[in-house]
């Protein structure tokens, strides 16, 4: 490789993998190394490769037609000193406070027993007795339902939740009573309910859990959820994955997303390349020019 500047040395760190493939494209011999490639004029380039490979290993990989097929994969390892980083704690801060375990137990017992319940939530044909005060304290949507006598939820003291999983509804209610979320819950289903009923702190907890699960195999699904339910934190996690793991672009999930939602792919790629906040430079200059123009009174 060569430098793009006649006076500047170029250095990149990569992982390079060699595979000797048989007739079935199966690697019978592999070698993985990490090296720094660099070029410094006028001495020319610098190369890396394999040396002193045992002859028998090569013979074992020769195909039936007498050929030897070698596959080489090169992956760029980003320089952490030049890679843009984010303070995740700023994005994931939930202002959480610790409460005693006894308090949680009392609240959970009240929820499970339906103690002093004055309303029921119905989902999938099952009813859950609840307290309207608890729901109203945590959700502006429930508060509006129970505050107006004209609404059927207020007069009949019953709320029917459709298009939701029963266990997800119970997890949402458990959080409103205790401030805790069950670990074995299907997080995405709870997130949908948190968005629907405007329970922002629960939604943020769900986003945090989903962020830890983002990988190249589910990136399409995660991005779809983030876009559909306005999940800023989850969306940032997807963008960060695209910046740091380019193997995502060859995954089946990414190819499927490109086919089904090309506009979303284009938008998130722009975020990955140019950042979440900064508008194009030309637009910045244009706005600055407008703000610097004097008013009619000043010009006179």
TrEMBL record:
<feature type="domain" description="BTB">
    <location>
        <begin position="117"/>
        <end position="185"/>
    </location>
</feature>
<dbReference type="InterPro" id="IPR011333">
    <property type="entry name" value="SKP1/BTB/POZ_sf"/>
</dbReference>
<dbReference type="InterPro" id="IPR000210">
    <property type="entry name" value="BTB/POZ_dom"/>
</dbReference>
<feature type="region of interest" description="Disordered">
    <location>
        <begin position="276"/>
        <end position="300"/>
    </location>
</feature>
<protein>
    <submittedName>
        <fullName>BTB domain-containing protein</fullName>
    </submittedName>
</protein>
<dbReference type="Pfam" id="PF00651">
    <property type="entry name" value="BTB"/>
</dbReference>
């Amino acid at each position: 490789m060569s430098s793009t500047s006649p006076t500047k040395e170029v250095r990149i760190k990569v992982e390079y993998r060699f595979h000797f493939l048989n007739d079935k494209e199966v690697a019978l011999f592999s070698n993985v190394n990490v090296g720094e490639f660099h070029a410094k004029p006028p001495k020319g380039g610098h190369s890396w490769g394999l040396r002193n490979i045992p002859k028998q290993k090569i013979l074992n990989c020769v195909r039936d037609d007498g050929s030897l097929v070698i596959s080489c994969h090169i992956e760029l390892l980003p320089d952490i000193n030049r890679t843009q980083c984010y303070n995740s704690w700023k994005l994931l801060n939930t202002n959480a406070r610790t409460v005693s375990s006894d308090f949680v137990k009392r609240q959970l017992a009240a929820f499970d027993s339906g103690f002093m319940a004055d309303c029921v939530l119905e989902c999938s044909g099952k009813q859950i007795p609840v307290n309207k005060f608890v729901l109203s304290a945590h959700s502006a949507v429930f508060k509006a339902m129970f505050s107006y006598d004209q609404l059927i939820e207020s007069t009949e003291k019953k709320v029917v939740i459709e298009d939701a999983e029963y266990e997800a509804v119970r997890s949402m209610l458990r959080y409103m009573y205790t401030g805790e979320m069950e670990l074995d819950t299907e997080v995405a289903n709870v997130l949908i309910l948190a968005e629907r009923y405007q329970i922002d702190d629960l939604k943020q907890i769900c986003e945090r859990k989903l962020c830890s699960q983002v990988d190249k195999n589910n990136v399409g699904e995660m991005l779809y959820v983030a876009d559909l339910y306005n999940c800023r934190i989850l969306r940032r996690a997807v963008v960060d994955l695209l910046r740091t793991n380019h193997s995502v672009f060859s995954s089946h999930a990414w190819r499927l997303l490109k086919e089904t939602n090309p506009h979303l792919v284009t938008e998130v790629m722009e975020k990955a390349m140019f950042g979440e906040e900064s508008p194009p430079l030309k637009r910045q200059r244009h706005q600055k020019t407008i703000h610097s123009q004097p008013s009619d009174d000043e010009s006179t």
